[in-house]
Amino acid sequence: MATKKSVGSLKEADLKGKRVFVRVDLNVPLDDNFNITDDTRIRAAVPTIKYLIGHGAKVILSSHLGRPKGVTPKYSLKPLVGRLSELLGVEVKMADDCIGEQVEKLVATLPEGGVLLLENVRFYKEEEKNDPEFAKKLASLADLYVNDAFGTAHRAHASTEGVAKYLKPAVAGFLMQKELDYLVGAVANPKKPFAAIVGGSKVSTKIGVIESLLAKVDILLLGGGMIFTFYKAQGHSVGSSLVEEDKLDLALSLIEKAKAKGVSLLLPTDVVAADKFAADANSKVVPASGIPDGWMGLDIGPVSIKSFSEALDTTKTIIWNGPMGVFEFDKFAAGTDTIAKKLAELSGNGVTTIIGGGDSVAAVEKAGLADKMSHISTGGGASLELLEGKSLPGVLALDNA
């Protein structure tokens, strides 16, 4: 993907008094009392908004929350206003809608450096349909466009792609920029040796990532539930572990592909097996080649943790996507936790460590190591699609640098 124009290239003359439509990703988890339980995404949006208000722009924020079907009060963005105001140091105004007369009036009264939060853009089905008339209505509120919502950049929606047709310049926010620099940059031009750690429960959801990374990495480490499909394909007994029977041939072909490309593909040699899928299951370490009947593998074993760590010691760039085991249960979290600690240690030694979205982000945060990594991706699906080498519509719509 070509390098995109960034909000940082816009100066006071471009921004002062201008109305800027900013698509942010404020899709944060709320509890039953509408309290924010994790404000990571709000904090991630702050640098771009602060830059704009600091240069005298009138900022109009647009986001979705959840997957509402029509206007659904529990998906209102109202509970976010307090925290957003606090983080920005300005009083954020809130609109009851995202288009229409009331919104236009509020925009008209916005002072320079003022911030208006529009109501959930997904209250309109036209948003996800990328309806041009709806996009035009959103665009009519502003003079230029900033997309900082990396988490929805893989969706061609009205607020992520449609409005860019009507507002110029259309530029990337700082968060979007950082995501692209790390995820596209690392994969396109990594410091070698380059390793990828891919985990998660199913091979099927990671095929694209594995195939794309096989063309680029020197070392590929596999963990999580997906490894049992590889074991079974190689004729090992997997007990009652998770297996995708229809992916056995694919697993073998990926092993062959790695060999042909000279990629060192490491599968765990031992696993922690459990007699049931539960936090209090009985567990024992068994060789990967012989999981007993009635037992299921729920984590990588101590020998594998050691050999994975030694392999990672040789690297300069690491991308991690997907946990090594069922880290939600403490008994089966050792593989994931140890890999997280290893990456944190290597970051300190100058290795570029990229946590590529999804559950690995949760695992790194649970281990309290998020601030130690070079980059933590905020997008789940968007990160995956970028790592698969796909182009993201929300990025393609922006102006080239």
From TrEMBL:
PROSITE patterns: PGLYCERATE_KINASE (PS00111). Substrate binds at residues 25-27, 64-67. One of its GO terms (cellular component) is cytosol. It catalyses: (2R)-3-phosphoglycerate + ATP = (2R)-3-phospho-glyceroyl phosphate + ADP. ATP binds at residues 206, 297, 328, 357-360. It is an enzyme of class 2 (transferase). It is found in: Cytoplasm. Its EC number is 2.7.2.3. Pfam families: PGK (PF00162). Gene3D superfamilies: Phosphoglycerate kinase, N-terminal domain. (2R)-3-phosphoglycerate binds at residues 41, 122, 155. Signal peptide: none annotated. PANTHER family: PHOSPHOGLYCERATE KINASE (PTHR11406), PHOSPHOGLYCERATE KINASE 3, CYTOSOLIC (PTHR11406:SF27). Monomer. This is Phosphoglycerate kinase. It comes from Coffea canephora.
